[in-house]
Amino acid sequence: MWVEFKCPICGGDLDDDKSMANFMVCNESSHGTLRLFTGDGCFFTSNEKVAEELVKKGKRVHVVDPQEFLQDMTDLSAGRAPPSQIRIQ
Fold it and tell me: Domain ranges in the chain?
C-alpha cells in the first residue's frame, strides 16, 4: 500500500527526509522547513506562526530550534542520548 503525505500548510507533497529516518519534510519557502515524524504524526517547525496554524488544524506540533533538533537526532541515531534526555538519579 502506498500512502502519499501532504503538507497541511501549503498542500505540497512531503518528501522523505534523507537526513533523518522516519521523517517526511516540506521545505516550501512560504513556511520554512516543516518535518513530520511518521511514527506518531507530530510535526516539527521553528516557526511559531506555522505551529499556531497546525494547532488550529488539529495537528500535534513542537516548536524547535533547528540546530538543536538536528544535533539531538544525530546523537540518537548514534546511540547517545541528548543532554535534555539524560536523567541523573
Answer: 15-85
Burial group, residue 3, by CB count within 10 angstroms (0-12, 13-18, 19+):
exposed
Q: pLDDT digits over 23-46, tens only?
A: 999 999 999 999 999 999 999 999
User: In terms of pTM, does the model score above 0.70?
Assistant: yes
Looking at residue 34, its amino acid is L
Instruction: Kindly tell me the number of DSSP H helices and DSSP E strands found in the chain.
Output: 2, 5
- Half-sphere exposure for 69 (CA within 13 Å, toward CB): 16
Type of residue numbered 43: F
Cell of 30: 512560504
% of the chain at pLDDT higher than 90: 60
DSSP 85: G
What is the average per-residue pLDDT within 41-59? 94
DSSP H helices in 3-65: 48-56
